[in-house]
Design goal:
Mean pLDDT: 96
Largest sheet: 7 strands, mixed
Number of helices: 12
Distance between the termini: 54 Å
Strand content: 5-15%
Number of strands: 15
Radius of gyration: 21 Å
Low-confidence stretches: none
Structural class: alpha/beta
Bound molecules: pyridoxal-5'-phosphate
Length: 396
């Protein structure tokens, strides 16, 4: 038996595991430290009442002979949820058929699993810095990865140039970690590039619910032509606090045809072979997110995180530290104070202020010298963390 040799080429550990281990080691040796975590992008607000009610109802149903649900009739998801997702897109003027919507157990699985559909010889283009799972999933599959630079000069929103050579392109907007969000023209440039080259865009919309300016696109399908060149991957993790409940959706439009094959049919075939669907009770909970009541409750939590982002940004403004994000995104991406590199600042902030952030270098080489803070904490901890951050930054 020979192993997949590509695993030798991935970094030893996933960024957030490394951060977690460092924090655990520090906590073990400093049991009295009151550590505040603004590092990993996990939410802190509980599930909203509409979701909890839906869960309770679905759990009760499962305990009755009439309401019991076994294997899901379609791995693609129950029609009630696919219709609810289609309704969500319709609010942005995007028409989707329920057959184009695939319910998932979250964006991370599909972002990696979708690679089953593509030849290993494709060249993949990934922005740097970005959510690290894209790179790792492609390296595991032995694909050539090229990077496109996201820097302060392009507002962390790289655009394609004609001689860029790629078959698969990842785009994450609003972006993790930089918080930058493409406008319509920026996404249209990528759609145009993909259509000209016969490339496919993998558009990660995990943070779409944070976009507060109605003029900014929340789905790639707001751009003309995108149905012929883009798959969209989305999640209820950040929209509705489903990080532990696990539900998302992937859109594979019928127009996507490559090599004479329909990607929609291929993905359905792949899912029906390797996936047995999302639990009934979770799909009912997800359906509740898209009711008017559920949506407005979820937006209350998002507003809560937005206020945290304002607190973080306010401190950085006072300190005169350069940052982006925090407006259409729960992430604030800042330049490390004192010219420190990002892991050095991580260690210092942990040791001197007992505050955890994420070192920018973990998101790619262009992340060196930058640092990510999340607005997903609790209000008082966020305030206190930023007070401690300011006290430390003033000494650097
Ligand atoms: N995509 C991006 C850009 C993310 O930041 C995350 C999680 O932090 C995910 C996908 C994963 O989302 P999920 O919880 O749905 O797997």
């Amino acid at each position: 038996m020979r192993i997949n040799e590509n695993y030798r080429n991935i970094q030893d550990s996933y960024l957030f595991s490394t951060v977690g281990k460092k924090v655990a080691a520090y906590a073990a040796s400093h049991p009295d430290a009151r550590i505040i975590r603004l590092g990993i992008g996990d939410v802190t607000r509980p599930l909203c009442p509409a979701v909890i009610d839906a869960l309770h109802r679905a759990v009760s149903e499962m305990g009755t002979p009439e309401g019991f649900h076994g294997y899901i009739p379609s791995e693609q998801g129950y029609p009630f949820l696919r219709e609810a997702v289609a309704g969500h897109y319709a609010e942005r003027g995007v028409t989707l058929s329920p057959e184009e919507i695939f319910i998932s157990d979250g964006a991370k699985s599909d972002l990696g699993n979708l690679l089953d559909l593509f030849d290993a010889d494709n060249t993949v283009l990934i922005p740097d810095p970005v959510y690290p799972a894209y790179v790792d999933a492609n390296v595991m599959a032995g694909r050539r990865v090229r990077y496109v630079d996201a820097t302060p000069d392009n507002g962390f929103l790289p655009l394609p140039d004609a001689d860029l050579d790629a078959d698969l392109v990842y785009i994450c907007s609003p972006n993790n970690p930089t918080g930058a969000v493409y406008d319509h023209a920026g996404l249209a440039a990528w759609v145009d590039y993909a259509l000209r080259r016969g490339a496919l865009l993998l558009f990660d919309a995990a943070y779409e619910a944070f976009v507060s300016d109605p003029a900014l696109p929340r789905t790639i399908y707001e751009v003309e032509g995108a149905r012929s060149c883009a798959i969209e991957i989305c999640s209820l993790s950040k929209t509705a606090g489903f990080t532990g409940t696990r539900c998302g959706y992937t859109i594979v439009p019928r127009e996507l045809k490559f090599g004479g094959m329909s990607l929609n049919a291929m993905w359905l075939r792949r899912q029906s072979t390797k996936f047995n669907g999302v639990p009934y009770i979770v799909q009912r909970a997800a359906e509740a997110v898209f009711t008017p009541e559920g949506w407005s409750q979820c937006m209350e939590s998002i507003d809560y995180y937005r206020e945290n982002a304002r607190i973080i940004a306010g401190t950085l403004d006072e300190l005169g530290i350069f940052y982006t994000g925090g407006i259409h995104s729960p992430y604030i991406w800042l330049r490390c104070p004192g010219g420190l590199d990002s892991w050095a600042f991580f260690d210092l902030l942990l040791e001197k202020a007992n505050v955890v952030g994420t070192p920018g270098a973990g998101f790619g080489v262009n992340g060196e010298g930058f640092f990510r803070l999340t607005a997903f904490g609790q209000r008082e901890s966020t305030r206190e963390a930023m007070q401690r951050f300011a006290d430390l930054a003033r000494t650097l």
